[in-house]
Fold this sequence. Notes:
This protein is of the alpha/beta class. The protein has helices at residues 19-33, 51-63, 80-88, 112-125, 141-154, 175-182, 191-195, 201-214, 222-242, 254-259, 264-272, 283-294, 398-407, 423-432, and strands at 5-12, 39-42, 68-73, 93-97, 131-135, 157-161, 185-189, 246-249, 276-278, 301-309, 314-319, 335-337, 347-351, 355-365, 368-379, 388-394, 413-418, 435-437. The strands form three sheets. The protein has a six-stranded antiparallel β-barrel. β10 and β11 (314-319) form a beta hairpin. α5 crosses α14 (423-432) and α9 packs across α11. The longest helix has 21 residues, at 222-242. The two termini are 26 Å apart. The mean pLDDT is 97.
Amino acid sequence: MKQKITVGLVCLARDTYDFRAAKELFDGIVKDVQAVPEVAWVEPSELVISPEDARAAALQMAAKNVDAVVCISGTFHLGHLVLELKKTCPVPILLWGLPELPYNGGKIRLNSVCGVNLNASNLYKAGFDDYHVIVQDKIDENWLDAIRIIAALKNAHIGIAGFRAHGFFNLGVQDNQLFAATGVILDHYELSDIHALAVQAEDVAAREAQIKEIFDVTTLSDYQIGKVAQLAAQLAAFKKLHGLDALAIRCWPEFARDFGVSPCAAMSILQSEGFILACEGDVEGAVSMIAHKALGAETPFLFDFSQVDFKEDFALFWHCGVAPCNLWDGTCVRSLDTYFAGGKGVTADFVLKSGELSVARIDSARGEYRIFLQSCKAVPMEKLLKGTYMKVVFDRPVREVLDLVVNNGFAHHSSVVYGRYIEPFRLFAKIKGWKVTE
């Protein structure tokens, strides 16, 4: 399900143009946009013609805490109007121009595009870059999806348990910079807060039955299965207790030593249920997954860019065994194994399903935020490795993709989802003033 947002919708006009036709067009748009899922619309029913109208409409929208404003230039109009809206509702704006109507008696009827031009110039010269322009009959749903990302991050509460993994300096974040850039609140917890959390015996038993139903566990001891079940129950309870939208975990080196097993298998199960969990204390990885989820993408997860084959032109997206278990290819044996951490590294082992993929990494470097984006495709492969992984072919040579990652210093994790979710990120970055690398 997509992130729900609240959006203002106004139509600007001037009575020296065909404002009655503009009103008819606006009424049609109001009906059309009701079909867009997970949007609460706030639309003053009358045209906004005077500065007083604009102030009244702005107050109405501000009272509903709109996440953005759609500003239709029904006709050409006064330049005051969009500035009055922006002053009271300091949120991103979609400047929407309507295609010109057939001329009537030699007179242009709407002059809508000129109104958009006026508004864009006024906003730009006032120092605002968070506007987007369209000239078309229908709402731009990619822009609405960009607003969903903004809203999801603004309302997000992320936890970090422990710290980033040992030596992974590139996954570190500056909490206040993250808040300033996105609105995310980041809270710190100790690993022991999870390990010591009391859970109901029936919850652990239910998780144990679930594990045995999903995975081949023949290589595990009863103790290991029980510890994975306990941790799955504890992580689910921890999320609820602290009201978390995501949790980044320092999953090594201490976790298996102190708890008895690594968290990978439990994370695989919980991620399949929609809980966003980031390996190795990767907070910005969690942010990237929240952004994907806001667009309606199911079960985002983090991968390592682990292997490239320049001759065959593919990459291996791999991680130690934490991908959501619902993304299994349905062919290989989906199992749990203990191939690292001295037999305590209980991980999921399976090949992920084939399909269209979108990759995104929201990443900070040198005091700025930026985004890495790519489209690619997972193709069938045999189960040849421990962990969770997929063979991936990009829309371009894999060497070019690797160069983009390493030459721009992006972190070694990115969020990946099935489906195409690229354009909303481009518009999100434009609104935020962030650089896109793709």
